[in-house]
Amino acid sequence: KQWYQRRVAITAGRKVQHRYQNAHDNPLYALCEVRDGKVFATGDDEGVIKLWDLRKEEPIVMIQPEHDNFISSFSVDSTGSTLVAASGDGRLSVWNSRQRKLIARSDECDSELLTCDVVRTNSKVVCGDGEGVLNIFTWDNWGDISDRIPVQEEVSVDTVLCYSEDILVLGCMDGVIRATSLFPHKPLTHIGDHSDNSIEALCLSHDEEEILSIGHDYFVRAWSVEKLDEDIKKLSVEDSDKDSGDSEDNDDDDESDSSEDEQPKKKKLKHISSKEIKSNETADFFSDLA
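User: That's the sequence. What structure does it adopt?
Assistant: Structure tokens below.
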């Protein structure tokens, strides 16, 4: 069993093209295609990351024991140049997949990182942790998280699917598939559940009309995105109404400022020196004697 878990198999359709036995010294935990269908990354139970290039005679092109605990998840940017890895040691590591070197490693988070995904057009990375929190990293500021969003207390977030720029679908330990808006943060509909069995993976169908999930109940389930799309439309309308209300308030403030500007200006008082005051008083005194 352990031997099987350390094996990597590359398939095309239903046929196995390559099989690499003893690909890792420890059981595999994560696998991710990096680019071109030829470059991919694997991570194991002891925190070792390997980068593979199937175009080369020796396919393993990088071996990095960067983490102290299992590699839980990988994600890549849209160009396939940057690979991010989440680990059970509570850290995120960032790699240049072309130069095969480490770019940065984050500080340790409060809990183990169980999943990660690149979102918002390569500007953020979202990581789900063992305490039911989304930890958000800002691109190029990898030292510490920039935001922290609680999802469900004491229910780990085991997998994340980026549905759209600001909408995430989360697979959690309690078997519930949740949707949430990222910016602004707002919980949306529950898409489905696996009857208290932890969700291991989520993906969008090729026609983008269903979300597929797999859990510890050994079933692959398909869920319609119709209810989720309805919630997204409602959220969009609420945001539009709020923006419209803010705009009207600003217009009222502008009108108030304008009315104040249009009020007649007070006539400026002429300054009279003390010498002029005394001269006028003397003139008034002699005029009374005339």
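The longest helix spans residues 226-262.
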